[in-house]
Design a protein that fits this description.
The chain has 112 residues and is mostly helical. It has a domain of 72 residues. The protein has 4 helices and no strands. The chain starts with 7 loop residues before the first helix and ends with a helix.
Length: 112
């Protein structure tokens, strides 16, 4: 894919912004998880359930952060917009919608 058909500068800006937002979200999740449990045992049960939900959210955010970092690395390496599986071009419209996309739509549909 040529630089002319794919604006990697704009993609990098969007990915940097997304990474900053994800890192901020992760910071909030970590702060919430670090709060000590309430001394009341019935409250502790509720808080423990909340913590399980927060841990699941943190796992998802961690995965999103890794995906964005990999996309930024692909930009750095000049491989952004190239499917990591088949080596074909990723449609610019797909990258516009999901700038962290590593697979072309054909390969992504095989994953489902």
């Amino acid at each position: 894919m040529t630089e002319a058909t794919l604006d990697t500068g704009a993609a990098k800006t969007r990915l940097d912004t997304q990474l900053a937002e994800l890192n901020a979200r992760m910071g909030r999740l970590e702060r919430d998880l670090d709060e000590p449990l309430n001394a009341d045992s019935s409250e502790q049960a509720v808080e423990m359930e909340d913590d399980q939900s927060l841990e699941a959210q943190a796992l998802l955010v961690t995965r999103e952060i890794a995906s964005v970092k990999r996309a930024l690395a692909r930009i750095e390496d000049g491989e952004y917009g190239i499917c990591v599986r088949c080596g074909g071009d990723i449609n610019p419209k797909r990258l516009e919608a999901r700038p962290e996309a590593a697979l072309c739509i054909h390969c992504a549909s095989k994953e489902g």
